[in-house]
Design brief:
alpha+beta; single chain; four-stranded antiparallel sheet; 25% helix
Length: 363
Amino acid sequence: MEVTLSVLKADIGSVGGHTAPSRRVLAQVEAVVREAVGRLLLDAYTFHIGDDIVLLMSHTRGPCHPEVHALAWRAFQEGTAVAKEEGLYGAGQDLLKDAFTGNLHGLGPQVAEMTFKERPAEAFLVLAADKTEPGAFNLPLYLAFADPMYASGLLLSPDLRPGFRFRIMDLAQTERDSHITLDAPERLYDIATLLRDSHRFAIESIWSRRHGEIAAVVSTTRLRNIAGRYVGKDDPVALIRTQKIFPATEEFGPPFALAPFVAGDTRGSHHMPLMPVKANTQASSFFCVPMVCALAFSLKEGKLSEPVDLFADPVWDAVRAKVVEKAQEMRRQGFYGPAMLPMEELEYTGIAERLKELAREFT
């Protein structure tokens, strides 16, 4: 059976600042999507990460289908209406356009979709991040799909040994999408050259070279490129197929335990470690530390199993404690040097305007 998985995410309002959606907002969004199961959708699951609401939908309509995207747009709009009734902060923040134009690309919400022929035991992950950038998954996915120090299956499995094909987007190109496709392991150094700059380059998709099957997709929307101003961080989502011809589910854990420094944090203007958290966790009051959740699902004839929360394991408590130490050390440096993002990442903030004014005083 050929199935499409769609993950769509948006910040449409949260309680007391950038914390979490209210129960009523989340329930309204979930009700709109759930009503379409059995008609437009095969199945659906709704959760949140920080102040972002995430929709996971299975169907047979293919990526960018107008009816599927219209459903998500209506769910986010109805949730926004509830958020405005409740006076929530940032109501409708990620809905950057007034009218639906056929699909959600370019309207604000993050989108990741893939179509594949369902395996007898189809296992996959949903990653969702808050308070960070599209390139936040660059290092973990590079390690899981290209580094045998983390993914031993690259050595042990004949299916994985031929490697994976990376499609990488240049986020600096705003007129049109600009991609490059590179094969690992042959082009490993070139892949690393690009992915090291998570502000400019981001993985868009990964493919099995031996089988030609889609392995992973990542959202790459930059909100500032749509709005022309800073309106919040981009908060990516990703779909990752696991097991058999792909890395094992457990091989995705250690790369995230590194908690790499990524863009994000308060006002989206700092470097902070990416903290693995449970799904439905509110955004941290500790400087809005960037965070990521990971849910594992099985799929049968388009129907979703109950999820397993991969970062709910007690071992991640120790990881989170170390992440807090890393975050504290970086934030002690305040605005100085690498603690704050480079100027090209701050061009849509007030600091850019201040620099223009100061430039007039230089002699």
